[in-house]
Specification:
CATH topology: Immunoglobulin-like
Shape: globular
Number of strands: 9
Oligomer: single chain
Distance between the termini: 29 Å
Number of domains: 1
Length: 149
């Protein structure tokens, strides 16, 4: 299965859970390799991306993602936020058209992992979903990702 199909399926499966609070067990050692922004609509979409570390905003930018090209069902852009050398208790927030989702990376199952969270704006009913991939599990990770923390 290619990465685009995986993102679409993961986003659809998780869209029902999006926005739910996920309990954390405290500090974990996680590397945020980048953030994928996925647009499956026929119009450009602006994603607001915020990264928090220890309840402080360490990154906040808006990114306009063009509509999907004619020969594709998705347009994926991966950004690599400029983060402090050391960060802990990371939460990544995304907002599109008034819909907000949070990906909390402080869970034990992300400890010592390099992760690539994704925010997915889907064409069906303008659903905004999320997913997190472990970079080691991707067969073709985006070249922008950086697993050096």
């Amino acid at each position: 299965m290619d990465r685009r199909k995986l993102l679409l399926l993961s986003g659809a499966a998780l869209s029902g859970l999006a926005g739910c609070a996920i309990p954390t067990s405290g500090s974990t050692n996680v590397t945020l390799s980048g953030i994928s922004l996925v647009n499956t609509t026929s119009t450009a979409v602006e994603f607001d991306v915020i990264v928090e570390s220890d309840d402080r905003i360490v990154y906040w930018e808006s990114h306009e993602i063009d509509s999907a090209p004619d020969d594709s069902q998705t347009n994926i852009e991966t950004i690599v936020p400029d983060l402090p050398d050391e960060y802990d208790n990371v939460a990544v927030h995304g907002r599109v058209n008034g819909q907000r989702r949070t990906i909390n990376l402080g869970r034990e199952n992300f400890d010592n992992e390099c992760v690539l969270p994704s925010f997915i704006y889907q064409i069906s009913n303008n659903i905004f979903g999320t997913t997190v991939d472990l970079v080691d599990n991707l067969s073709d990770p985006p070249e922008e990702v950086n697993c050096q923390n």
